[in-house]
Amino acid sequence: MRKYLRRPEQLELLPSLGKWLLIASVVAALAGSASAFFLVSLDRATEWREAHRWIIWLLPLAGMGVGFVYHLLGKQVDGGNNLIIDEIHDPKKVVPLRMAPLVLGGTVISHLFGASVGREGTAVQMSGALADQLTHVFRLKHEDRRILLMTGVSAGFSAVFGTPLAGAVFGLEILAIGRMRYDALFPCAVAAIVANQVCLAFGVHHTHYAISEVVPISAWSVLAVVLAGIIFGLVGAVFAKAAHKLGATMKRRIGYAPLRPFVGGVIVATAVWALDAYNYIGLGIPEIMRSFQEPMKPWDWLGKLVFTVVSLGTGFKGGEVTPLFYIGATLGNALAPLLHLPFPMLAGIGFVAVFAGAANTPIATTLMAMELFGADIGPLAAVGCITAYLFSGHTGIYHAQRLGHGKHSKHRRTVPEELRISDLAHFHKQRSEAQKKPPIPPADTSEPQIEHQANDIDQKGE
C-alpha cells in the first residue's frame, strides 16, 4: 500500500527551489559586483574622453592593442555572446574565466578612445563566464549548466540596465526565436532581481528617462505605432546584417586579426574629425536624453548606425544594445512629426523597438519600456516591439540564436527548428539549388527491357 502513496508535487519541488535560490543568488552577487565595477569604470573612461577629445587619434593603436591581446590570449572567448548562447544550447566545456577580464578591459578601452560600442555584451559575457565557474563547484550536469548560464545572462543584463524584469525574460528569450524555456524562469528571475540590488548597493545609479506625454490608445495611435514599428524592425535588420557582413568581409580581407580594429580606428577617427561627429561615438547617453526633450536631426539615427557598424564590424569590443537604443530613440524622434505623435513617446518606443527587432526579444523589450518609462506606455510599446520583431525577419545581432519557431507560416513549414540564424541563408541557398536541378529520371526496369538485356548477354557469352 505504501508504494502507491506519493508525496505532493509541491514537496518534491522544494529541494529544487532551494538549490536554485542559492545558485542564482551567488551568480547575482558575482554579476552585480562585476557590473558595478564595469559601469563605474565606463563612466570614468567616458568623462576622460569627453574632456580630452584629441584622444580619438589614438583609437587605431588602442584597437590594435586590444586585438593583439585577444589574438594571444582570447581566441577561445572571441565569440562573445554567441559563445555563451552556443554553450547553453550545446554544453561542451566551461567558458574560460579569462573572458571576463578580457572583455571588461577591451570595452573600457574602446570607450576611452572613442569607438561607438555598447555595454550589454560586456556585462552578459562577464556574468556568463563568472557563473559558469560554478559548474564544478556545485557539480552541475549539462541540463543544470544550461540554466546556470541563462541565470548569468539575466543577471548581467539586469545589472547593467537596472531592469530586473526585462533581464529575467531576456535570459530566456535570447536563445531561440519564438520559444522560451520556462524551467529556468525562477532562477533567472531571482538572479536578475538580486543582481540589480547588488549593483545598486555599490552606489551605481542608472539613467532615468522621462516621457512627458503618452497618448491614449485609439485606432490612429495603434496604426501609427504599427507603421513606426515596421520601420524600426527594418532598421534593426539592416543594423544586424551590416555588422555581420562587415565583420565577415574584414576577416576575409585582413587575415591578421589585430589589424582589423586598427583599420576601423583610422576610419572612425578620421570621420569624427572631418564631420565633427563626436556625438556619434561612445554610448551616446546625452543624445538619447535629448531625443526625449527636443527634436533631433533627422539623420542622427543613421550616423550612429554607421559608426557603430564600423566599430563592431572591425573588431572593437563592446555591446550593441545601447547604440541600438540611440538609433531607435533618434529615429522615433524623427518619425514623430510624420505620424502626428509626441516625439518623447515615439522616441521611447523606438528606444526599445529597434532593439526588439535586432535581438528578436519583443517580450523583454516591452517589459523594459515599462520599467524605464512607466506602465502607461506598455500597450503601445508592446505593439511597436512586436511589429518590429516580426518585420526584422529571421536575422539578428546574435547569430548563434536558434530558429525555435519561425515568425511566419512559410518558415514554420520549410525551415528546420534548431537551425542557427547565421546558417539560414546557406540553408535557403542549398534548398534553392536543389530545386533548380533537373529531376533524375527513374530507371526503366520494365520486364521486356530486362529480358532483352539478358538475351544480349547470353549471345555475347556464346
From TrEMBL:
Subcellular localization, as worded in the UniProt entry: Membrane
Question: Which InterPro entries does the entry mention?
Answer: Cl-channel_core (IPR014743), ClC (IPR001807), ClC-type_chloride_channel (IPR050368)
The family database entries (SUPFAM superfamilies) matched by this protein are listed as: Clc chloride channel
Q: Where are the transmembrane segments?
A: 20-42, 54-73, 147-172, 184-205, 217-240, 261-281, 301-326, 338-359, 379-400
Record's compositionally biased regions (Basic and acidic residues): 449-462
Q: Which domain of life is it from?
A: Bacteria
Q: Which UniProt keywords apply?
A: Ion channel, Ion transport, Membrane, Transmembrane, Transmembrane helix, Transport
Membrane topology classification: Multi-pass membrane protein
Give positions of region: Disordered: 428-462
Official protein name in the record: Voltage-gated chloride channel family protein
The organism is Pseudomonas triclosanedens
Lineage at the top is:
Bacteria, Pseudomonadati, Pseudomonadota, Gammaproteobacteria, Pseudomonadales
